[in-house]
């Protein structure tokens, strides 16, 4: 399984950004895709997940501001980030696993991350 994130950048508070994650190498029909983030000195935390049945979950801190989605035809996962705050600054990672999960330890496949900096 290969996951490659893109779309990060530096922007001002209240701005918007869309992250993408191109996935390849997994052929199972059941899966869970997630976005995680890790700020310097902090643990990696779940931001949003989407299961193969379309169910989504969000961290309380991003509900109403971030939206996770996927394009099955393009094998791509997205995260739309709106109303960004300085505390959203972190490295954002895409992850995949066969079964639904939320904790970073539950995911076995990871991308290298894309940096989001909000000032």
Describe this structure in words.
The chain is 0% helix and 50% strand. It is mainly β. Strands 2, 4, 5, 6, 9, 10 and 11 form a seven-stranded mixed sheet that branches. A four-stranded antiparallel sheet has the order 1-3-8-7, with no helix packed on it.
Question: Which features characterize this protein?
Answer:
single chain, 119 residues, mainly beta, seven-stranded mixed sheet, four-stranded antiparallel sheet, 11 strands, 0% helix, globular
Q: Helix-strand pattern, N to C?
A: EEEEEEEEEEE
Give the strand tally: 11
Gyration radius over CA? 13 Å
Give the CA-based shape: globular
Chain oligomer state: single chain
Largest sheet report: 7 strands, mixed
Given the structure, what is the number of helices? 0
Structural class: mainly beta
In percent terms, what proportion of residues is strand? over 45%
Helix content: under 10%
First-last Cα distance: 34 Å
Low-confidence stretches: none
Mean model confidence by pLDDT: 95
